[in-house]
Design goal:
This protein is of the alpha+beta class. It is elongated and about 130 Å long.
Length: about 900
């Protein structure tokens, strides 16, 4: 069995024989494993996993690190061995820090790719199973239907009205009709109607096929192998931060070049320039450049996005494209399907009318949790003959059953009949026992023409009883009597009109109504269909609906609070859509409801004028979604759109955030989407928006903290050398690099994973055009100019008689003040007393403080840094300024909160 070309020329039995495949059972798991080892994964692009060692080595390809290593070697060559060793140690620490961040991001992306692996239905060991497409092997039997994306080349062995869209391979715009007949050898790929190809989609029908080629051996793979792999695009945020890093780097190098150049020229004017002086100045310039440039910024942004995507996946939101994480925080409109997204897609009995009384039933979906209520109060558990008989009839005149699988309640059979069974259980009945007590003898099945179903059962007394359920107008027409609290009595015209009015009220509430009746057959002789369903006794009505998910109501409330417009789009009837929209608060007084027919009649201009007032679309076709999206986008809104069908793909691509359903969605919709909901739940969209905002906020905190600290370092250290000359170096290169490690390392990373601010889901959406340098970021960076820089310069110059003492003061000033700033950056707008630093940030700050003071207890390291032990007076001044800095930040937060504009 060897993959070959020409499978289209063979008859089905020959294909199966050559591939060693069984059309009824498929491959065994053991055989599939053997073939997977032989042919490899079914992937067009075999990505090589990045090893931890390669990641670590990659850290030393950074231009700044390379320059720093060269400077270290120069330092060693002129005899400064201890300084060289100290700086090399700091470089290795920096590399380890970058390695752990990138390693974490790589593992998060790997886990995400596994979650996003496309699935396909195959036969294995005689069972239909869902399998990741990359695990397919030649000989696997595929089961395909409308909406599926074909993951491998396969020869059809069964085809029922099968049509495939092969535009991605052949360029043919119309779907191709498929059949299983053998074809001549010379037939072109585009005319091989008995073969389905990788990348094609099933447009119509269904079929069964045996895999003939996988991966790069497929027709699509042969083309892909000739084309260079496309590079992953950067997100807008990554681009902006990379741009920031580039300009900061250029500015820093310019400053350092000027400082070192001026110093060397100044030394040359005074006398001969010695090599050790040049090395010292080069080392100083490089160290200052390292301190000035947030070299890990782009990596941190990518890592934060990747880790955020992984966390979203755990919350049932698989983000397929990284830019979607950023865009989520800007979403202003969510256009959602109804069934299965806003609702559970599970019919639930809501109202029961029996014995002249209306009851409501609580609970949502198939979970048998809820109760019967009358006038808003729980109904007594006392026997209720009419209600209990009606619910028994609903169980017996039904083929559905309820089962629990892996903690999930499921209906086996018709969902409508299942809803009746669940309602009976809520009343305390046990379906299994009822069916044992009243076994079914005969039945007249439901049909669309009859609109009713009747079953016959023996009672405990041996008498036969017939139970009928069906459309209210049909069942009522077959009834001559009614049973209520007083017993069985004739059904007069007045009561018929009264019952018809009850049915109408239930229908107006968007309930699907069924009527239930019975017939005592104790006096019946021979009977047929006509006589059996005559002279029935009416029992009551059961009204059901696919109700909204309980968590969706809260999610809609959150959307309203943060000025995100929720919109319902459904193919259901207008009344049904309105009922769910009112209950979830999507529809409010004054809103407009449009049907697909009304939408089609409106011009684009007329529709754009009212689109912001339309909250519900009923009887809408999937392609109508494009018109809705375009109208919103013309108003400058950022639109998220859900979809699950093949025809939803254009709308999902057009939307700013296309959201496919993971359970009910087709492969085509998932491929077109930016995000996939693995639980098909609207509330998950809102959770994803929260996570998107959270990620963006933390990146902004990290960026602001780094820039504020780095600006101060460059202004103070570079400014002093530029004005006073190299004889007054505020800090030696080793000390500058250590400060960079201590403050730009763990504390900054801890800010990147800080918990969200409490108002994260009360703010209106962020404008997609908003610069990273927003008003609050600029204010914080401005403090570096007006607060930190003047004080740091004062501390250095006031004690300039002893340079080592001045260096000691400014060294500890940098360490302590920047760590204090990190603690207070837990939130950029909320007081530290309301939002204290999280555990990770506290541990990061404490560890760096302990490391700094611990290392400086070692005399040789103090000498390498060019600092001494700070006096109590120095520490007191630094702590005092730290408290002042703390107060300034708290006042800044107060100002930002008070001047915050929606």
């Amino acid at each position: 069995m060897t993959p070959q070309r020409g499978w289209h020329t063979l008859d089905v039995p020959d294909v199966l024989e050559k591939l060693g495949a069984d059309r009824a059972r498929g491959l065994s798991a053991a055989e599939a494993g053997t073939r997977l080892g032989k042919y490899g994964p079914n992937e067009l692009k075999l990505e090589r996993k990045v090893s931890p060692w390669a990641l670590f080595v990659h850290q030393f390809t950074n231009v700044l690190i390379i320059i720093l290593i060269i400077a270290t070697i120069l330092s060693a060559l002129v005899g400064e061995l201890f300084d060289a060793a100290l700086i090399l140690g700091i470089v290795i620490f920096c590399a380890l820090l970058g390695f752990f961040q990138e390693y974490r991001a790589e593992r998060a992306l790997e886990a995400l790719k596994k979650m996003l692996s496309p699935m396909i239905t195959v036969l294995r060991d005689g069972r239909e199973i869902e399998l990741a497409s990359k695990e397919l092997v030649p000989g696997d039997i595929l089961l395909v239907e409308a909406g599926d994306k074909i993951p491998a080349d396969a020869r059809l062995i069964e085809a029922v009205s099968l049509k495939c869209d092969e535009a991605s391979l052949t360029g043919e715009s119309l779907p191709v009709n498929k059949d299983i007949r053998a074809l001549p050898e010379e037939v072109a790929v585009s005319d091989r109607k008995n073969t389905i190809f990788t990348g094609a989609t099933v447009a119509y029908g269904r079929g069964k096929a045996v895999v003939t080629a996988t991966g790069l051996l497929t027709e699509f793979g042969r083309i892909a192998a000739q084309v260079a792999g496309a590079e992953e695009k950067e997100t807008p945020l990554e681009k902006r931060t990379a741009e920031i890093g580039k300009w900061l780097g250029l500015a820093a190098f310019a400053i350092c070049f000027i400082i070192s150049g001026v110093s060397i020229i100044r030394e040359a004017v005074a006398g001969p320039v010695k090599l050790d002086f040049v090395v010292t100045m080069v080392m100083f310039a490089v160290a200052l450049a390292v301190a000035a440039v947030p070299e890990a910024l782009a990596a941190i942004v990518t890592g934060s996005l990747a880790i955020g995507m992984h966390q979203m996946a755990k919350q049932n939101a698989l983000v397929r494209r990284m830019p979607a994480v950023e865009t989520l925080g800007c979403t202003t409109v969510i256009c959602s399907d109804k069934t299965g997204t806003l609702t559970k897609g599970e019919m639930t009995v809501r109202q029961v009318y029996a014995g002249g009384r209306m009851r409501s039933v609580t609970g949502v979906g198939y979970a048998p949790h809820g109760e019967f209520q009358e006038n808003g109060r729980p109904q007594s558990a006392e026997p209720d003959p009419v209600l209990d008989l009606m619910l028994k009839a609903a169980i017996l005149c039904s083929d559905a059953s309820l089962e629990e699988v892996d903690g999930q309640w499921r209906i086996k059979g018709d969902p409508t009949e299942g809803a009746l069974v669940v309602a009976a259980i809520k009343r305390g009945l046990k379906p299994t026992e009822v069916k044992i007590d009243f076994p079914r003898l005969e039945e007249l099945p439901f049909s669309s023409e009859r609109k009713r179903m009747t079953t016959i059962h023996p009672g405990p007394n041996g008498r036969k009883t017939a139970f009928t359920k069906g459309a209210p107008e049909i069942v009522l027409g077959l009834c001559d009597t009614i049973r209520d609290g007083q017993g069985v009595r004739p059904l007069g015209e007045k009561e018929r009109r009264s019952l018809a009015a009850v049915n109408e009220r239930m229908a107006e509430a968007a309930l699907r109504v069924l009527a239930v009746a019975f017939k005592d057959m104790s006096g019946e002789g021979r009977y047929n269909e006509d006589t059996l369903e005559r002279g029935l006794t009416f029992l009551g009505f059961l009204g059901m609906i696919d109700p909204p998910r309980e968590e969706v109501i809260e999610a809609i409330r959150v959307c309203r609070n943060i000025k995100i417009k929720p919109v319902m789009i459904t193919g259901d009837h207008k009344l049904t859509a309105m009922a769910v929209a009112r209950e979830t608060d999507i529809f409010r007084q004054g809103d407009i409801v449009l049907t697909g027919e009304e939408l089609e009649r409106m011009s684009d201009q007329d529709f754009e004028a009212i689109v912001d007032r339309v909250s519900v679309y009923a009887r809408v076709a999937p392609l109508d979604k494009l018109k809705i999206i375009k109208a919103w986008k013309k108003r400058g809104e950022v639109v998220a759109m859900t979809g699950d069908g093949v025809n939803d793909a254009p709308a999902l691509k057009q939307a700013d955030i296309g959201i496919a359903m993971g359970i009910t969605g087709t492969d085509v919709s998932k491929e077109a989407a930016d995000m996939i909901l693995t639980d098909d739940n609207f509330a998950t969209i809102v959770k994803a928006i929260e996570r998107g905002r959270w990620i963006y906020d933390n990146i902004k905190k990290y960026l602001t903290y780094l820039l504020r600290c780095n600006v101060t370092e460059v202004l103070v250290i570079g400014g002093v050398v530029l004005v006073m000359g190299p004889t007054h170096l505020p800090l030696l290169p080793a000390a500058i690099l250590f400060i960079n490690l201590a403050t730009d390392g763990l504390p900054a990373l801890a800010l990147g994973v800080a918990p969200p601010d409490p108002d994260i889901m009360t703010r209106p959406p962020r404008s997609p055009k908003e610069s990273v340098f927003s008003r609050d970021v600029l204010i914080y960076i401005g403090l570096a100019f007006v607060i930190e820089t003047p004080f740091f310069l004062f501390m250095f110059f006031h004690d300039l008689g002893t340079v080592s003492q001045a260096r000691t003061e400014i060294f500890f000033l940098f360490i302590i003040i920047e760590l204090i700033i990190a603690l207070n950056f837990r939130s950029m707008r909320f007081s530290i007393f309301k939002l204290p630093p999280h555990k990770g940030l506290v541990l990061a700050v404490l560890s760096q403080a302990i490391l700094a003071f611990g290392l400086l207890l070692i005399p040789s390291i103090r000498n390498g840094f060019g600092v001494g032990i700070p006096t109590r007076g120095t520490l007191a001044v630094i702590v005092g300024f730290g408290l002042f800095e703390f107060m300034v930040m708290e006042l800044t937060k107060v100002y930002l909160r008070k001047t915050h504009r929606d």
